Each structure stands twice: as structure tokens, then as C-alpha cells.
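Customer escalation, tier 2.

The customer says the design service returned an amino acid string that "doesn't look like it belongs to this structure." They asked us to rerun it and document both sides in this ticket. The original C-alpha cells are below, unchanged.
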């Protein structure tokens, strides 16, 4: 029997679950059972939990459907628990180093306590200064184990479930489970506190609770707010059945009704049924008010008296129902020129054009990437929708002649972004673009994240210094309605990097559709356009941007590589788009394709890819062609930029650390050997999940045509997909 069973629900936090599990398995105290609770065997978190279970026999994943809520997940974990003591940890929180050692030592001192309450720290989502909200309460507790009547204020109501350790035999004896509905921590904490005979405290913090940027779901408006009264009635009834001393019932009553009044004083949390909520709360107040109860002083005391009297009208008048809400748009800069600003403000008051879609790629660099692929498919499936592509001044030539465009910053630009129903971008629209009610913003992204993104960059100084304001970044995220994902890994990392309330679309990247629809004739045509000599092996070299460099550096002597790799090798050099200045770096057997409009064309032309840490590897893997990772500065890159997984431990093919190693794998053919193929197959299984040639169709049907999720084409299994054929040179080899 393990000493501790740690139960970790994971619904909605798959992106951070691995961090929570690592914080448990990394404890110096190892006598534990770790129980991740996942929605279903095929849920995003289930794959994460399964990987841990394969590596560590202490991990026991279980499942609980999302409809069962947090209470159902925790109860499912309790049923699987075998430990002497139970701990609960939310899937996006952390167990602090040394926590289990400290808990074990304290429990050994106080044999037989039912509940050990412990400290926890609350950390803002931006990793700001931590606070320990229960420290004052725990500070006044006796040193050893004690009966709850000795500290009536410690009712459990004010502490979340993960701020305590529970003796499993005690929970079983009293048949304690998490009550259904919302506010389950309040009901659980109250019922446990009512039943406990001996309790104790550990003043040390053991859990780091990371506040979600979206805030607590319990603060959102809706009918679930009525569940609060269900939990209050459940706890007060339990206290009455046990005939607790008046000292305990008074403290319990005050704490429960502090929560009730907090909700009653915010009518916006109850768009409907606020009067019914107040009346029921008033009835519960009168039924369960302890004998001799004294109301608090000041304004809170007035609220108590009005609630007891059922004076709803007076209560609402006291609290001031009408509050001024500061809109997010107030914080956003407007167009700088006064005339344009006034016109934009006027256009924002005009009706939305429900048949207008605005597209933008790479901050206006041209017609490219996912927005271009969606635009092309929309012309076919939604011809009634007028489309306008946004481009920078001077990049008008980068838009096909038959595509309507607007220059960013122009009068027409502000007009279309103010009126469009659909706004589609692979980066972000300018901060001055206001998110209108009824408009739909689709963030398509433009790669699978290996390197840290969004708010995850905040702990890397070199990157953070270049990223600007994270507050402004998240203001832009708040405009997203949908966020596109090419694989489950991306879904989880976007959830972490860009916290928001958008919906994930696990549809694949539309720009990658061509990797399954292109023909051999297309490949031959593109190679001729790029100038690849017939019969040569084209190696695409695509290094990523380095935040610690001030300009583009190839990182490799390409002429020397060609000479050493073989006479039939040519290199297609594609620098990161940050360094596209329209100048050619090609010479001899080096063909500079940096300025070529389509990275997809370049990939189709290449027989193999050499990259360092660029996300192009994830897209290229769809072609099932050889990939070589040239990782000459991996340690520096990992420390300065931060990464989401160890690429060298899970590469898409052969890894080379020096120029000599890189040339050798091409010279001896190992870059396309059996070992490289096995690595690529595993990589494709993980990162090519949703790309099957129909991503653009799914996006158009779901977003532009408003079809329900079940009406979009399902993803074709990886084993059934047929990538575009490689050039004849590779086929013959």
C-alpha cells in the first residue's frame, strides 16, 4: 500500500499536465501512486498520461467523462486509490519540491489525524508574485493534532481540495465523496470539516496553484451559480445532523454566507434568476442561522440583515447594480491620423458585412500560408463570400492578379477590417483592430511549436526582450474565436502559450493540403521553375531564426557541404522569412529560394530536408521524405529560446552535430536508411495527425459556412494517406 495516492484531474489542461505529473514523480519521496484522470482513452490528456504510465509503474491513469465534472473526476480517482493518504492536484498546478517529504514527516508526528491542512501559494498566470492566502488561518492553529472545536474558523470551506491531505480510511468510513455540480470544493471542504474528529496543519506551502488567465469558471455568469446554494444547503444540513457546537456552526455559517453574499452582490453572474437566488438564500439563512448569531459590523452586516429579511429590492439598491465596465477596446490604440480614426469609428457603427472575409499572412508579406489555402478553398465552396487579402505597401506584387487586396494602413484597409464578418490571420491583426460582436476571428498559426511561444517565452530574457508586451499579446489573443492545430501536441502547447477562451480546431494546416494533392507533374514543374538540374538530388536547407543573433547566418558552409556530400547534390537555401530581403545568396550548386512565394512548393521540390530547429520539419514530414537535423548549437538554442520537447531524443531522422557528420550521412546514404525511416515514422505518427489534404475544406465548412463539427469531413488515418511523389531521382535510388 503506497503512502500517498495523488489524484490529478486533467480536463481542459492537457497542455500543462506533463508539468503537473513531473512535479509529482520528481519528488524525493517516492512511495506514491499517481492517478491522472482523463476524459476518455482518446482524449488529449490520455496520450500524455499513457506515456508516463509506460515509463513508471506508479502511474495509474483512469477515465471520467467531462459531463461528470471535477467532482466525477476526483471521485473516479478516489475509487482507484490505494494509498493511506489522498492528495488532490489540479492538472495545471504543481506539487512543490520536497512537499511529500514534509507531509510524510508531519503525518508521522501526528499519527491518525483525519485531515492535514497545508499551505499553498497562488501564482498569477504571468508568473507574478506568489501569495499564500491561507497562511493567516493556519498560523493560529495549535502545534499538534487537535479537535476542530479548538479552531472553529478552520472549517475547510475556505480551502481548496488540493490544500489538504486526507486519510483514506476516514473518507471511506464516512462515505465522503465530492458532491456533484459546481462549487464542489466548497461542498467537499465543508462536509469533510464537519465529519473530521482530529485535524492538524502544516504551515509549509506544498502546492503552487497557477491562476488561469481566463479566471475561475465559477466567476462566469450562468445558471451554474445556483449550485452554490445547493452546496451551502448540503453542508449546513450535514452540520445540523451532527449537532455541532455553536462555535463551529457559527464559523461555518459565516463563511458559507460570505460566499453567498459575494454572488448575490454581483447580479451580472446571474443574468436570469437573480431574485430566485436571493429568495432561496434568504430562506436558507433563516433556517440555519445559529442561535445567538451576531451579524458582522459595517456594510457586510447590512447585507446580512437584508438577506435575513428577504429585502431583495433594498439589497440591489445597496449594492448598486449598474456598474461601468471598461471595454477592452479602450486599451487599444486607434489609427493615428485623426481623419482615418473618425472614419474607422464611423465604420464600426455600420452593420457587419456577413459575406466579407479578410485574410492576412505574415503581417502582410503576401498571399501565402494557411490564409491563402483557406482563401482558395473558400472560392470553391463559399463563392458568395467576398475575400480581401491584406498586404504591406510595396508587397502588392505578392498577391495574384485575380485576388482582391487592400494595403495595410490605407483607408480601404480600415474599412474592410471594420465591416468583415470573418477575419483570418496566421499571425495577428494590428492592435487597433477592434473585435466586433458577431465577427469571427480565426487564428491559423504558421507552424508546429518546438520552441517556446507566447507567454511561455517570458522566462527567457533574450526572447522576452524582443517580444514586447505580453499584456498586449494576450489582448490580441482575446479576439480569437478559433485557433487551428495540426496535431495534438500543438493544441496542448497553444493552450499554454496563448491562454484564452477560443475553440481549438484540430483540422490540420490548410497549407499542407498540397502535400497530398500534388502530382508528379506538379513536382517536376516546380523543380524546373526553381532551376533544379535534372537528375540531381535537391536538399532543402532551412535553418530557423535565432533570437541571440542579429542577422542571418547560414550556420554551414554550403559549398563545402555540396563538395563533400556528392556530385549529384544541390542545395535549396531557404532562410527564415525574417531575412527575406529579395537578395539572392545562391551560387554554383546553391539555389537561393528564400524569396520564393511558397514554402510548400520548395518542399515539394526537395528530395530531402536539412534543418536545425525550424518548424518546417513538421510540415515536410507529411511528404514522408528524409529529414536530417543539423544541431550544431542545440544546447545554446535550448537555453536561450526554450523548447517544448527534446528534439534530439525524438528526431524526425538522422541527427548530425558537425559539418563532417552532415556530409557523411549524405555520402553514405544513411540519411534515407532504415533507421532514419523508423525515426521519421514515429515522428509522423505524433506530428502529422490531422494533415490529410482536406484541412482547408474542414475550415471553410466549419468557420465560413457555419457547419456543425460533426458535418466536417473526418481526418483520414495516417496509414491511408498517400503523399505527393518525390522526384524521379529519389524514386530510382
Amino acid at each position: 500500500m503506497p503512502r500517498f495516492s495523488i489524484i490529478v484531474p486533467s480536463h481542459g489542461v492537457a497542455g500543462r499536465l506533463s508539468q503537473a505529473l513531473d512535479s509529482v514523480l520528481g519528488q524525493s519521496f517516492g512511495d506514491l501512486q499517481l492517478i491522472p484522470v482523463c476524459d476518455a482513452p482518446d482524449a488529449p490528456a490520455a496520450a500524455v498520461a499513457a506515456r508516463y504510465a509506460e515509463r513508471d509503474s506508479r502511474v495509474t491513469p483512469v477515465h471520467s467523462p467531462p459531463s461528470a465534472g471535477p467532482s466525477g473526476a476526483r471521485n473516479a480517482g478516489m475509487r482507484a486509490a490505494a494509498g493511506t493518504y489522498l492528495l488532490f492536484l489540479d492538472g495545471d498546478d504543481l506539487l512543490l519540491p520536497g512537499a511529500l517529504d514534509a507531509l510524510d514527516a508531519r503525518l508521522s508526528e501526528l499519527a491518525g489525524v483525519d485531515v492535514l491542512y497545508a499551505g499553498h501559494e497562488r501564482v498569477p498566470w504571468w508568473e507574478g508574485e506568489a501569495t499564500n492566502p491561507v497562511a493567516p488561518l493556519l498560523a493560529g492553529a495549535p502545534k499538534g493534532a487537535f479537535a476542530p472545536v479548538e479552531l472553529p474558523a478552520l472549517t475547510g470551506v475556505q480551502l481548496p481540495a488540493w490544500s489538504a491531505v486526507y486519510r483514506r480510511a476516514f473518507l471511506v468510513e464516512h462515505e465522503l465523496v465530492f458532491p456533484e455540480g459546481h462549487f464542489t470544493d466548497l461542498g467537499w471542504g465543508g462536509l469533510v470539516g464537519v465529519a473530521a474528529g482530529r485535524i492538524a496543519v502544516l504551515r509549509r506551502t506544498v502546492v503552487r496553484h497557477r491562476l488561469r488567465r481566463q479566471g475561475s469558471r465559477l466567476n462566469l455568469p450562468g445558471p451554474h451559480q445556483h449550485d452554490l446554494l445547493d452546496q451551502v444547503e448540503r453542508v449546513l444540513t450535514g452540520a445540523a445532523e451532527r449537532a455541532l457546537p455553536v462555535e463551529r456552526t457559527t464559523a461555518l455559517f459565516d463563511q458559507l454566507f460570505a460566499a453567498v453574499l459575494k454572488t448575490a452582490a454581483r447580479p451580472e453572474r446571474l443574468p436570469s434568476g437573480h431574485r430566485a437566488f436571493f429568495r432561496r438564500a434568504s430562506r436558507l439563512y433563516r433556517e440555519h442561522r445559529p442561535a445567538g448569531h451576531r451579524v458582522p459590523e459595517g456594510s457586510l452586516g447590512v447585507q446580512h440583515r437584508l438577506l435575513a429579511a428577504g429585502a431583495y429590492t433594498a439589497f440591489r439598491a445597496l449594492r448598486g447594480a449598474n456598474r461601468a465596465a471598461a471595454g477592452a477596446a479602450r486599451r487599444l490604440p486607434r489609427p493615428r491620423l485623426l481623419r482615418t480614426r473618425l472614419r474607422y469609428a464611423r465604420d464600426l457603427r455600420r452593420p457587419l458585412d456577413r459575406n466579407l472575409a479578410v485574410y492576412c499572412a505574415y503581417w502582410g508579406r503576401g498571399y501565402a500560408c494557411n490564409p491563402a489555402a483557406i482563401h482558395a478553398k473558400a472560392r470553391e465552396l463559399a463563392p458568395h463570400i467576398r475575400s480581401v487579402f491584406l498586404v504591406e505597401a510595396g508587397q502588392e506584387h505578392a498577391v495574384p492578379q485575380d485576388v482582391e487586396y487592400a494595403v495595410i494602413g490605407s483607408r480601404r484597409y480600415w474599412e474592410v477590417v471594420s465591416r468583415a464578418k470573418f477575419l483570418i490571420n496566421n499571425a495577428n491583426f494590428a492592435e487597433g483592430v477592434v473585435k466586433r460582436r458577431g465577427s469571427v476571428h480565426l487564428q491559423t498559426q504558421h507552424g508546429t511549436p518546438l520552441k517556446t511561444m507566447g507567454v511561455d517565452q517570458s522566462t527567457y530574457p533574450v526572447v522576452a526582450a524582443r517580444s514586447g508586451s505580453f499584456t498586449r499579446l494576450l489582448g490580441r489573443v482575446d479576439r480569437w474565436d478559433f485557433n487551428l492545430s495540426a496535431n495534438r501536441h500543438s493544441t496542448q502547447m497553444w493552450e499554454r502559450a496563448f491562454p484564452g477562451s477560443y475553440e481549438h480546431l484540430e483540422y490540420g494546416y490548410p497549407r499542407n493540403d498540397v502535400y497530398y494533392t500534388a502530382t508528379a507533374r506538379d513536382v517536376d514543374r516546380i523543380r524546373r521553375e526553381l532551376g533544379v538540374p535534372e537528375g540531381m538530388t535537391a536538399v532543402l536547407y532551412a535553418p530557423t531564426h535565432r533570437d541571440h543573433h542579429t542577422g542571418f547566418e547560414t550556420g554551414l558552409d554550403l559549398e563545402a557541404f555540396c563538395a563533400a556530400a556528392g556530385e549529384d547534390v544541390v542545395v535549396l537555401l531557404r532562410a527564415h522569412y525574417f531575412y527575406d530581403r529579395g537578395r539572392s545568396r545562391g551560387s554554383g550548386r546553391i539555389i537561393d529560394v528564400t524569396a520564393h512565394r511558397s514554402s510548400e512548393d520548395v518542399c515539394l521540390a526537395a528530395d530531402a530536408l536539412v534543418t536545425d530547429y525550424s518548424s518546417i520539419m513538421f510540415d515536410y514530414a507529411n511528404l514522408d521524405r528524409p529529414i536530417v537535423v543539423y544541431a550544431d548549437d542545440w544546447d545554446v538554442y535550448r537555453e536561450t529560446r526554450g523548447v517544448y520537447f527534446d528534439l534530439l531524443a525524438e528526431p524526425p531522422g538522422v541527427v548530425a552535430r558537425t559539418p563532417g557528420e552532415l556530409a557523411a550521412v549524405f555520402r553514405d546514404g544513411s540519411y534515407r536508411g532504415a533507421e532514419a525511416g523508423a525515426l521519421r515514422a514515429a515522428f509522423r505518427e505524433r506530428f502529422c495527425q490531422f494533415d490529410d489534404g482536406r484541412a482547408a475544406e474542414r475550415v471553410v465548412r466549419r468557420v465560413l459556412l457555419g457547419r456543425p463539427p460533426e458535418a466536417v469531413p473526418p481526418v483520414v488515418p495516417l496509414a491511408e494517406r498517400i503523399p505527393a511523389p518525390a522526384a524521379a531521382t529519389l524514386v530510382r535510388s
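Tier 2 assessment: The sequence is consistent with the input. Residues 321-333, 548-552, 578-584, 729-733 have pLDDT under 50 and may be disordered. DSSP finds 28 helices and 21 strands in the chain. Sent an explanation to the customer and offered a walkthrough call.
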